[in-house]
């Protein structure tokens, strides 16, 4: 999913954050796109052959 300037504006508006100017959006958009791409790569990572080395239990 590519993040566009319009998508970023809509996200900022829906979260009730301080609106940003187009110039400010141009500065942060590449970083947001990098984070989105990293998240997509992580989601596509095959962990089916990974073994859990530690099991964490909640304290009572």
Give structural notes.
With 60 residues, this protein is an all-alpha fold. The chain has a domain at 5-43. Helix content is 55%, strand content 0%. It has two helices and no strands. The chain has helices at residues 5-14, 22-44. The longest helix has 23 residues, at 22-44. The chain is elongated. The chain starts with a helix and ends in a 16-residue tail after the last helix. The model has no long low-confidence stretch (mean pLDDT 90).
Name the descriptors.
single chain, 60 residues, mainly alpha
**What is the percentage of strand-forming residues?**
under 5%
Instruction: Please report the total strand number as a whole number.
Output: 0
- Encode the helix/strand succession as letters: HH
State the helicity in percent bands: 55-70%
Going by helix content, strand content and strand pairing, the class is mainly alpha
Mean pLDDT: 90
> Termini distance?
41 Å
The radius of gyration computed from the alpha-carbon positions, rounded to a whole number of angstroms, is: 18 Å
Low-confidence residue ranges: none
Largest sheet: none
- The rough form would be described as elongated
How are the SSEs placed, and which strands pair?
Blueprint: H1 5-14, H2 22-44
Overview in brief:
0% of the residues are buried.
């Amino acid at each position: 999913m590519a993040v566009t300037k319009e998508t970023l504006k809509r996200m900022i508006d829906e979260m009730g954050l301080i609106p940003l100017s187009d110039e400010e959006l141009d500065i942060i958009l590449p970083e947001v796109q990098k984070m989105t791409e990293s998240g997509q790569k992580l989601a596509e990572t095959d962990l089916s052959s990974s073994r859990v080395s530690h099991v964490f239990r909640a304290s009572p």
